[in-house]
């Protein structure tokens, strides 16, 4: 590891959601004060239930959405100081669904070389060779250069998407559920490919996934999101072996349910995932928390540092009259 490559400082993004013709708009705080520093070479797993804000946060890091407030820094410089294409050269996404992210009317060679054309790469005579090199690197046979996406399997299409993301040699790749649209049989092949590419090319990953097994396998550190905030962050071993935040504990227990992709079963927590337009007061997790105390519904917990990261929970905050339970 050598320094912070992407950082978010108290980043917020609020959308105005129409509440009806006569009722104006109501604020939906999709991201609500996120501070994260992503170290070069790490794999940061970003986990949480659908709608918790992880994809919105990733889109802000990519420069695709502007924060309402707060700062995003790339290599120590505010993202607004970069040209759009500069950000794209440094950070690239790989999306969940290779079926919809590839243009069905373009050949594989054209799709993978698109970033070279968009970036006006000055050496067009080298494009074909570079495409063939990156195809070999991601395990796509050269004979597919002139194939179309509908002639490929799901795993091959995701390899095309990965090749397109990597052809300009970005430093950070944001992998948004990179295997969840694939057959189980090819998921591990794609995950192993991503691991090999990270080592070979010195990449940094932000891995968004609701699949905790994938995150445990890939990530070096994990941040847990709930209603737009990072409620716990820790290195992967610590988080999976001794989760501190009650929400993290519930998420890990949900792995034992028949379909963990559905998130934390409401029955297990006693209440449904809250409506983000009407977030609970105090600690937003309090209606579902088995350890909630009276002041949890009144006072929002601060981020309490632990030996391995932080947890936003009064259970660990001496200032809230509780002994620190663990560090
Ligand atoms: Fe539960 Fe209170 Fe901690 Fe929130 S602050 S997670 S309600 S114990």
> How do the strands of the widest beta sheet line up side by side?
6-7-8-3-9-10-12-11
- Summarize model confidence as the mean pLDDT: 90
What is the CATH topology assignment of the largest domain? Answer: Rossmann fold
Proportion in helices:
25-40%
Number of strands: 12
Strand and helix order: EEEHEEHEHHHEHEHEEHHHEE
- CATH homology group of the largest domain: P-loop containing nucleotide triphosphate hydrolases
Q: What is the CATH top level name of the largest domain?
A: Alpha Beta
Estimate the strand proportion: 15-25%
Q: Which cofactor or ligand species appear? A: iron/sulfur cluster
Distance between the termini: 24 Å
Count of all domains: 2
Description:
By secondary structure, the chain is an alpha/beta fold. It folds into 2 domains: 4-18 and 27-241, P-loop containing nucleotide triphosphate hydrolases (Rossmann fold, 3-Layer(aba) Sandwich); 256-327, no CATH class. Helices cover 29% and strands 24% of the residues. The chain has 10 helices and 12 strands. The protein has an 8-stranded mixed beta sheet, with helices on both faces. Helix 3 (108-118) packs across helix 4, helix 3 (108-118) packs parallel to helix 5 (154-166) and helix 5 (154-166) packs parallel to helix 6 (184-201). The longest helix has 18 residues, at 184-201. It is globular and about 65 Å long. The chain starts with a strand and ends in a 15-residue tail after the last strand. The model has no long low-confidence stretch (mean pLDDT 90). Residues 246, 283, 285-286, 289, 291-293, 296, 301, 313-315 line the site of iron/sulfur cluster.
């Amino acid at each position: 590891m050598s320094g912070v490559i992407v950082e978010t400082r108290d980043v917020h993004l609020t959308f105005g959601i129409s509440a009806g013709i006569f009722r104006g708009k109501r604020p939906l705080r999709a991201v609500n004060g996120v501070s994260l520093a992503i170290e070069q070479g790490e794999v940061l797993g970003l986990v949480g239930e659908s709608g918790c804000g992880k994809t919105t946060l990733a889109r802000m890091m990519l420069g695709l959405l502007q924060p309402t407030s707060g700062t995003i820094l790339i290599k120590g410089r505010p993202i607004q100081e970069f040209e759009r294409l500069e950000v794209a050269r440094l950070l690239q996404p790989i999306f969940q669904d290779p079926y919809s992210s590839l243009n069905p009317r373009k050949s594989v060679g054209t799709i993978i070389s698109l970033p070279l054309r968009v970036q006006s790469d000055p050496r067009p005579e080298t494009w074909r060779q570079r495409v063939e090199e990156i195809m070999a690197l991601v395990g796509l046979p050269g004979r597919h250069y002139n194939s179309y996406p509908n002639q490929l399997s799901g795993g091959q299409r995701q390899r095309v998407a990965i090749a397109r993301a990597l052809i300009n040699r970005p430093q950070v790749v944001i992998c948004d559920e990179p295997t969840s649209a694939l057959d189980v049989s090819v998921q591990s092949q794609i995950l192993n490919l991503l691991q090999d590419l990270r080592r070979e090319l010195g990449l940094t990953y932000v891995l968004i996934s609701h699949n905790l097994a994938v995150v445990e396998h890939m990530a070096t550190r994990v941040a847990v999101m709930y209603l737009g905030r990072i409620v716990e962050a820790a290195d992967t071993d610590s988080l999976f072996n001794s989760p501190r935040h009650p929400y993290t504990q519930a998420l890990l227990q949900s792995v034992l349910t028949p379909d963990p992709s559905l998130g934390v079963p409401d029955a297990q927590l006693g209440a449904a995932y809250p409506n983000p337009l009407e977030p609970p007061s105090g600690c937003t997790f309090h209606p579902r928390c088995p350890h909630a105390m009276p002041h949890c519904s009144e006072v929002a917990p601060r981020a309490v540092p632990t030996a391995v990261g932080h947890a936003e929970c009064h259970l660990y905050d001496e200032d809230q009259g509780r002994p620190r339970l663990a560090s």
